[in-house]
């Protein structure tokens, strides 16, 4: 191919400069994002054939799409794999192809702008150099573990070699992403540059032939030790890190990643069939199938609101408590101007202080960005922002008459096209809307605590809610990067109506003499992120009692011990004692010292825990499953898949099961 010529494939475009530099752009046909499907990889092999025939002086691989670099492998193709052999062939294809890329004689560079995930990062790791573009959308990750699989195309080999085993295993075991600046700090990228100079920087580095600067002696020595004499210790530490969060029985992938790095040099194809870390074991595990199902459920929730072009610039939140303050903070983080109303500046101040800490964490200490974000969060004790807002969210206490009065006032002040939303968790929209001249304007936007962490938001349709208002509310939820779940107005909607009976059954077990620690251990072993008794303590025992029917169910009374604790002012975490004693925000459980030594709570070496009674988890879960089915039957949520999605993303229900109703269908209804 002569200078300045271009050669196109269906998905790839190769162009050469007179300098000898070749640019290879990926633009997956008929797709909004680049993914490494079978035909994309097959064409890439053909591109390498062309480059082998006429080698360039250097090669830069980039994306022709604005949506990002490469989002990873094609999940749709992965979902259709019908055998372990097919899965093994998929791994082998990528492993051999990226090894071929890594072995070419000319310098290669990945120019990464936007998302670089999974197989996309493994392709970038096979290049000699990487430049990342310093933009908020640039994220790099190996998130395969979140799908119950392992990064089999070279990630387990090349990432530990590049940034060191400890940092690499941490990224692979959590699936968490890093931004452009952190990628540079870790050594994952050679340079981090602004968009305006990215092509020039890529050209200069690719053509320079400059070898990478050697690591400092101490770092080289540490890497040598971690990859040699201390390899087993590093692996054991990583396994312990994984075991603190998940069990191998339910989540084999993180443990397999450690095994494959430690014993097989990062090559999953070398693990013998039948080994508990083999591809056969991983791909035949129900966890992998169920986590892929959860991924598809998440994508379905993300699709809600895509038909909305609503782009709110100003949000007004009434109520500066924990919930309202955090809603306001999340909106400000997403670039919106937010006015936060409460009875006085003094009541608003704690919410602003809490928001500042959140902004510092999210902006990673960038004082300038923290200041800009804080400037968008405006205390508004007089509620003047309501007249300018595109979205108004009420987040005050659960009192029907007070909410009615507030909405009558808000309707009179709001713009005609402003969305009027309530964050109520237990009241019917129809009852609140009676105060409005136009009840069709009211919609529910129900967040979960803690707002910055939990991804789900229920978008509640009342009997009179206008379709356009509903569409705008759903679009708003997507604009703040949450997962909208459409639900109908009913007591507790979906999530609270299934959590109530679940927590009640756990407290009944405690009432019958089962230790709170035992109840919680049974549900954590099942795969819940937190035990139900600890959850009640975290929510607040007074709130649990106030929830009334949502917690107790028809004709049932709250447990006597719960009422006794509330009467004594023992309200759980916020008061320092409930079913557990709380110190520094953590529950003190059996095995913890009763005395404080040196200002710290110290744990005894715990005795082996007693065995969990058979059927305990199933008993506690049974009311949750029944309530989930009931919500589908009553039309509170559209179908069983959406119910599963809501319970997983709203309560943390064990993702490895694929959701409560899916779990029932596969294993049968717990007795």
Give structural notes.
The protein has 28 helices and 23 strands. It is of the alpha/beta class. The protein folds into 3 domains: 279 residues, 2-enoyl-CoA Hydratase, Chain A, domain 1, CATH 3.90.226; 170 residues, Rossmann fold, CATH 3.40.50.720; 182 residues, N-(1-d-carboxylethyl)-l-norvaline Dehydrogenase, domain 2 (Orthogonal Bundle). An 8-stranded mixed beta sheet has the order 14-13-12-15-16-17-18-19, with helices on both faces. Strands 1-2-3-4-6-8-11 form a 7-stranded mixed beta sheet, sandwiched between helices. It has a 4-stranded mixed beta sheet with strand order 5-7-9-10. It starts with 5 loop residues before the first strand and ends with a helix.
SSE arrangement:
Blueprint: E1 6-8, E2 12-16, E3 21-26, H1 38-53, E4 58-63, E5 68-70, H2 75-79, H3 84-102, E6 108-112, E7 115-117, H4 119-125, E8 129-133, E9 139-141, H5 155-163, H6 165-174, E10 178-179, H7 180-186, E11 191-193, H8 198-208, H9 217-227, H10 231-243, H11 252-264, H12 279-284, H13 286-303, E12 314-318, H14 322-333, E13 337-341, H15 345-362, H16 367-375, E14 377-379, E15 391-394, H17 400-413, E16 419-422, H18 429-433, E17 442-446, E18 456-461, H19 467-479, E19 483-488, H20 495-511, H21 516-526, H22 532-539, H23 541-546, H24 549-552, H25 560-567, E20 581-583, E21 586-588, E22 592-597, E23 600-603, H26 616-633, H27 640-651, H28 660-667
Parallel strand pairs: 3-4, 4-6, 5-7, 6-8, 7-9, 8-11, 12-13, 12-15, 13-14, 15-16, 16-17, 18-19
Antiparallel strand pairs: 1-2, 2-3, 9-10, 17-18, 20-21, 22-23
Helix pairs in contact: 1-3, 3-4, 4-5, 5-6, 6-11, 10-11, 13-27, 14-15, 15-16, 20-22, 20-26, 21-26, 26-27
Protein name: NAD-binding 3-hydroxyacyl-CoA dehydrogenase
Pathway: Lipid metabolism; fatty acid beta-oxidation
Pfam family, one: 3HCDH
């Amino acid at each position: 191919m002569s200078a300045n010529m271009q050669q196109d494939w269906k998905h790839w475009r190769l162009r050469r400069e007179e300098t000898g530099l070749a640019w290879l752009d990926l633009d997956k046909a008929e797709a909004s994002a680049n993914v490494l499907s079978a035909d994309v990889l097959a064409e890439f092999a053909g591109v390498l054939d062309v480059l082998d025939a006429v080698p360039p002086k250097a090669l830069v691989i980039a994306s022709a799409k604005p949506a990002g670099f490469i989002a990873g492998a094609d999940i749709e193709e992965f979902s259709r794999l019908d055998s372990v052999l097919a899965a093994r062939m998929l791994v082998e294809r990528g492993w051999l192809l990226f090894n071929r890329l890594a072995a070419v004689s000319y310098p290669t560079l990945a120019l990464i702008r936007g998302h670089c995930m999974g197989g996309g990062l493994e392709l970038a790791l096979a290049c000699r150099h990487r430049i990342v573009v310093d933009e908020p959308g640039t994220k790099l990750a190996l998130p395969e573990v979140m799908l119950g699989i392992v990064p089999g195309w070279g990630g387990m080999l090349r990432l530990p070699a590049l940034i060191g085993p400890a940092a690499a295993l941490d990224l692979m075991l959590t699936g968490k992403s890093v931004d452009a600046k952190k990628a540079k700090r870790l050594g994952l990228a050679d340079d981090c540059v602004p968009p305006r100079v990215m092509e020039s920087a890529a050209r200069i580095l690719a053509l320079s032939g400059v070898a990478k600067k050697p690591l400092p002696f101490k770092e080289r020595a540490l890497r040598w030790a971690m990859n040699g004499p201390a390899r087993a210790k590093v692996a054991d530490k990583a396994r312990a890190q994984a075991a603190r969060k998940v069990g191998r029985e339910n989540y084999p992938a993180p443990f397999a990643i450690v095994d494959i790095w430690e014993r097989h040099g990062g090559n999953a194809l070398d693990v013998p069939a039948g080994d508990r870390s083999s591809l056969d074991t991983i791909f035949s595990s129900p966890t992998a199938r169920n986590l892929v199902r959860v991924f598809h459920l998440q994508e379905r929730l993300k699709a809600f609101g895509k038909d909305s072009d609503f782009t709110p610039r100003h949000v007004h939140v009434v109520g500066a408590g924990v919930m309202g303050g955090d809603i306001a903070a999340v909106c400000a983080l997403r670039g919106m101007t937010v006015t936060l109303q409460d009875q006085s500046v003094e009541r608003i101040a704690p919410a602003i202080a809490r928001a500042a800490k959140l902004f510092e964490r999210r902006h990673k200490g960038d004082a300038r960005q923290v200041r800009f974000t804080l400037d968008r969060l405006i205390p508004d004790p007089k509620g003047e922002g309501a007249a300018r807002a595109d979205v108004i969210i009420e987040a005050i206490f659960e009192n029907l008459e007070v909410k009615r009065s507030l909405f009558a006032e808000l309707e009179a002040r709001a713009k005609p096209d402003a969305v009027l939303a309530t964050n109520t968790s237990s009241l019917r929209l129809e009852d609140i809307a009676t105060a409005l001249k136009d009840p069709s304007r009211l919609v529910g936007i129900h967040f979960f605590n803690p707002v910055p962490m939990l991804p789900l938001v229920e978008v509640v349709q009342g009997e009179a809610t206008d379709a356009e208002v509903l569409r705008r509310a759903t679009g708003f939820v997507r604009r703040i990067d949450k997962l909208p779940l459409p639900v109908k107005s009913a007591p507790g909607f979906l999530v609270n109506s299934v959590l109530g009976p679940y927590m009640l059954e756990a407290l009944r077990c405690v009432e019958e003499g089962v230790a709170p620690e035992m109840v919680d251990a049974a549900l954590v072993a099942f795969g819940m992120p937190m035990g139900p008794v600890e959850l009640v303590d975290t929510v607040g025992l007074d709130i649990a009692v106030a929830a009334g029917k949502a917690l107790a169910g028809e004709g049932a009374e709250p447990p006597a011990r719960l009422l006794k604790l509330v009467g004594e002012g023992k309200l759980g975490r916020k008061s320092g004692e409930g079913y557990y004693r709380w110190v520094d925000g953590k529950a003190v459980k059996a095995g913890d010292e009763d005395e404080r030594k040196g200002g710290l709570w110290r744990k005894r070496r715990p005795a082996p825990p007693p065995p969990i009674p058979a059927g305990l988890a199933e008993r506690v879960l049974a009311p949750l499953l029944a309530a989930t089915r009931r919500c589908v039957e009553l039309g509170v949520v559209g179908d069983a898949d959406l119910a599963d999605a809501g319970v997983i993303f709203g309560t943390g229900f064990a993702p490895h099961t694929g959701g409560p109703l899916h779990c029932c269908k596969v294993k049968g209804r717990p007795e």
